[in-house]
Amino acid sequence: MTQSGTQPFCHNVLLCDAATIPSLMENNRKIAEHLRQIAALLEEQGVAFKPAAYRRAAKVIEELKSDVAVFQNEKELMELPGIGAAIAGKIREYLTTGHIKALEQLLATQGGIPPALMEIEDLGPKRARQLQMALGIQSVADLKKAAEEGKIRSLPGFSEVMEAKLLENAKRVKERTRRFTLKEVEDDVAALLKKIRSVAGVERCEAAGSFRRRKETVGDIDVLVVTKSAGKVGDAIAELPIVRDVVAHGESKLSFDLKSGIRVDIRFVKRDQWGAALLYFTGSKEHNIALRKLAIQRGWKLNEYGLFEGEKVIASREEEDIYKALELPFFDPQKRTEELKI
Predict the structure, then answer these.
(1) Is residue 341 part of a domain?
(2) Please, which residues bridge with residue 313 across strands?
(3) What is the CATH number of the domain that holds 278?
(4) H-helix or E-strand containing 61?
(5) Which phi and psi angles does 263 have, rounded to 5°?
(6) Domain range holding 187?
(7) pTM beyond 0.70, yes or no
């Protein structure tokens, strides 16, 4: 038993006693919860980028089909998408000691913010802290109850409209964190792409991400659109009947939920950068990293805008152009893994 009272990680499940095995099965959930707590506290500090990285990592750990304890070291953990060295270190620290020192330091300084509340859209850490202090809200269920009873609207900085919006978003937390089977979303995606392609000003449109790689489940849908009029096209897409709620609307990105509940992120890209963007946003992350390493070996740079030698563009218009420049065959999206087998 560790000093914190948590059962330590057992390296061999067959040798673990009965008391240890249940804790092993909780590793993924507990670690995801801790990572989300770190994200919330860093966001409260105003730290950029890191909160999103911790939330992505939490989702990856939570959705693992096996216990995270099977990864024997940080290097193996870093093979997972979204897990960098710092986060891998914290995961291993929890598995070996039962706690994460960095989180304990944040909690000692700031106090905790219930991670579940940070899953509610439009409820940032400051508002979550305010609800926690004023009404004792610790969970999504607590927030829904308080909103239904009209207790939130009278708090400073809140309103009846905000209360209604938070209640609506709280009811959709499970929907936002679930993964959909490919079969569940195929018809909706096909219908959406057909509608987008019919919008005036759209030159090209394609789904990317895990949907294009034909993974068994998808968390959201990434769609790339080529247009010279992102603002007008974005407005037109936002008005499509298939769209339920628009959550972000900018010059380069449009995010909304379909009526089925799945989130769609549309990215507007330039015509001459289509291939690079499609390659990048299709993934997988491991495949992209392998391609970037190959480019670096040649003194080049590869990103979502193109393949470059210094400022010179080597390839960017089509995916095939980039593979050809790297002297690789075209990889079918379903085969885009870490290994560049020829």
Answers:
(1) no
(2) 308
(3) 3.30.210.10
(4) helix 50-62
(5) -85, 140
(6) 180-269
(7) no
